[in-house]
Design a protein that fits this description.
CATH architecture of the largest domain: Alpha-Beta Complex
Number of strands: 19
Radius of gyration: 29 Å
Largest sheet: 9 strands, mixed
Shape: globular
Helix content: 25-40%
Strand order of the largest sheet: 10-5-1-4-19-14-11-12-13
Number of domains: 4
Strand content: 15-25%
Length: 540
């Protein structure tokens, strides 16, 4: 059974997430289970069979990135937060039963739900995201609800190193926590869960067929006028509207301008009569006033506003001729999942970008915060990583994009041994273990002088060595990293002479040298640690 569990949750193998849940605590203010720095994050090594076993034994909880380096996956999940709109597990269990949805709900450590889907073979991660996206409306979840895999393609940093994206914590920690739930709310034991997964695995074709039939059923009763337009409008026309009429009519106007360019105004007037419950507040005059104010309107659909957002079926909308992909407005692509990697001296960032007109989501690396706040730099980053160039948008629109992106920012510490500081530490260690300076000539040529427990060597020549290792920082930033009193090296850069011998009359000329405490580099190597998450150490 243990080996089957491993097979079920196989994903990205070169790294895995972990959580030392035994060190966790309950926040007295929020009631949420949290973890301190160092107890939650990415490991710095590939996942092994023993890591899965330790998870099942309750030693250390692990998480897996479902999307591998080839953009393939065999499982995914909708993450429902316990704070979401009158959360009740039974509510979602009833929906699963009513619609006969081939998913398996599991409790999460935070008290929410992970609604898993499993496939019989590896499929494109995009296929699983599309399937789960289709279910958001049925579960009455917002389009911003987290879906794993969060990425359908893992990006790279500027050195070409592959990024990890996001992991999801696995169920059945200690084999009796985060269990799958039956329709009546009772728990499945570990063995029953394995059998349940095997019985509910689907092929790509089966997922597609279910989603298609499900969408057809959801849209049944909506007006056929919208068969090539936004599904949300189609759903909303099942009954005459007496609320949300302004937003409906606005989005209908956007749709009508594209489908009926020659007489869209008459179509809007007719739509109001056909789809609205008229009232003293809503009559022909008000509709005509709205049309007059919208004649020069060029913006697209307002998908984030009610009642549109609650009836959003984005994957279907993207496929339709007059859906959101047809909007002519200049819109910046959707950005999400901002992670600040707390490197020194300059933090680095990763985020997710959605390719317009598709459901593809990819991780993107940004070297500095300026790369995010400067729209032109951001466009270049996205173009290089994701293969398309975003449109330039007005400053206020881009500010809104950034506000949404930074609202959910998490902060992480680089894995031990992978940060720029630690790499520099290793380079210094390697350098001072090289040739030793026996005289002034060798010292000036780059050899290391050992004196009174300290090591000294030429800073300019050391920089030349770093450049050969594709070191990305210039002299000024490198010097800051060397002299940082809270850093790993804690050295200094100053003028240094090779000591003259007793028989020499003249002192040797000084050079710009790095000085470090030799004992620090004789210590045992830094122990392997993990990528900590600060401030967001909540178990998903």
């Amino acid at each position: 059974m243990d080996k089957k569990f491993i097979q079920i949750f196989t994903g990205l193998e070169r790294n895995f997430g972990f959580a030392n849940v035994k060190n966790g605590y309950t926040d007295p203010e929020t009631g949420k289970f949290k973890l301190k720095n160092g107890d939650y994050g990415w490991s710095s090594k590939p996942v092994t069979e023993q890591d899965y076993i330790d998870h099942l034994l309750g030693k250390r909880s692990i998480g897996i990135q479902a999307c591998d380096d080839e953009g393939m996956a065999r499982f995914g999940a909708i993450d429902i937060d316990p704070e979401y709109k009158n959360f009740s597990p039974q509510k979602y269990l009833d929906i699963i039963k009513e619609n006969n949805i081939p998913v398996i709900p599991c409790s999460s450590k935070s008290g929410g739900l992970h609604i898993f889907v499993f496939t019989k073979e590896l499929v494109k991660a995009e296929v699983i995201r599309n399937f789960l996206d289709t279910l958001l409306f049925t579960f009455k979840l917002e389009v911003s609800t987290e879906i794993f895999p969060k990425q359908t393609k893992l990006g790279t940093d500027e050195s070409g190193k592959k990024l990890n994206g996001n992991f999801i914590n696995l169920p059945y920690f200690n084999k009796n926590e985060r269990c799958a739930l039956n329709i009546d709310g009772t728990k499945f034991n570990f063995e029953e869960f394995i059998q349940l997964v095997e019985a509910n695995k689907k092929t790509e074709v089966e997922l597609h067929d279910f989603a298609s039939a499900h969408v057809k059923n959801v849209l049944q009763g909506g007006h056929e006028e919208f068969f090539d337009g936004p599904p949300c409008l189609q759903i909303l026309t099942k009954n005459k509207l007496d609320d949300g009429r302004d937003r409906f009519l606005y989005n209908y106007m956007v749709f009508a301008k594209k489908k009926y360019p020659d007489d869209w105004e008459k179509k809007v007037e007719k739509a109001a009569r056909d789809y609205f419950e008229y009232s003293p507040e809503w009559d022909d005059k008000k509709v005509k006033d709205k049309i007059k104010s919208w004649k020069k309107e060029t913006k697209g659909h307002t998908c984030t506003q009610e009642p549109i957002v609650s009836h959003c079926m984005k994957p279907q909308c993207l496929k339709r001729k007059y859906g959101i992909a047809s909007d002519t407005q200049k819109a910046f692509p959707m950005l999400s999942g901002l992670v600040k990697i707390n490197c020194r001296p300059d933090p680095e960032y990763t985020f997710n970008v959605s390719t317009p007109g598709t459901t593809k989501v990819q991780t993107v690396f940004a070297r500095s915060v300026e790369s995010l706040t400067d729209q032109r730099k951001m466009r270049n980053i996205i173009a290089n990583a994701a293969g398309f160039v975003p449109e330039m948008v007005k400053a206020n629109v881009y500010q809104d994009v950034l506000n949404l992106l930074f609202a959910t920012r998490s902060v992480v510490e680089p894995a031990k041994g992978t940060s720029s500081e630690e790499k520099l530490f290793d380079y210094v260690k390697e350098y001072i273990n090289g040739p030793k300076a026996e005289n002034n000539i060798s010292f000036r040529s780059g050899a290391t002088l050992i004196e009174k427990g300290n090591a000294y060597f030429s800073f300019p020549l050391f920089m030349n060595v770093l450049k050969s290792k594709e070191w990305k920082f210039k002299e000024d930033k490198t010097s800051v990293m060397i002299e940082d009193i809270d850093g790993f090296i804690k050295g200094e850069i100053a003028r240094k002479r090779f000591p003259k011998k007793n028989d020499e009359k003249k002192s040797n000329e000084s050079i710009q040298a790095v000085g470090v405490n030799l004992n620090k580099f004789l210590e045992k190597d830094l122990e392997e640690e993990v990528l900590d998450i600060k401030g967001t150490g909540e178990i998903i």
